[in-house]
Amino acid sequence: xxxxxxxxxxxxxxxxxxxxxxxxxxxxxxxxxxxxxxxxxxxxxxxxxxxxxxxxxxxxxxxxxxxxxxxxxxxxxxxxxxxxxxxxxxxxxxxxxxxxxxxxxxxxxxxxxxxxxxxxxxxxxxxxxxxxxxxxxxxxxxxxxxxxxxxxxxxxxxxxxxxx
Length: 164
Known about the structure:
Elements: H1 2-19, E1 24-32, E2 37-45, H2 46-54, H3 68-82, E3 83-86, E4 96-102, E5 106-114, E6 121-126, E7 137-144, E8 147-154, E9 159-163
Parallel strand pairs: 1-7
Antiparallel strand pairs: 1-2, 2-5, 3-6, 4-5, 6-9, 7-8
């Protein structure tokens, strides 16, 4: 009976590990030339994002159960630290957080970045969740001026210029 319990426990642990064996986010970035802004949708795994938001907090943060003003403040602060847009190197344009939408095991975060003038590219530093998960990969799909492109941001390659 003891061997059976150990086998079941080992099987359960391996299933949990296999269910979420990688750490990634997907950003859909749309350049809206008429509004002079970047419109951003960012998909994150709920458990990973909640772990990052909970760092330094007295109790664990739940995107669905923690007070909405607290979640909004923590999400906005984390985005401002780890997803930085600029029209020149070193610039940090303000992020306007719009909201969150839940999926089965993930959440979509929506925000916008106003631009002072039309642009043909942006600088992006994208290190979301890398402090929490060193193997984190952040995929960015860009749509601008009728062109589509993708970029991969990971540890050691967090900053890139995206041109269109």
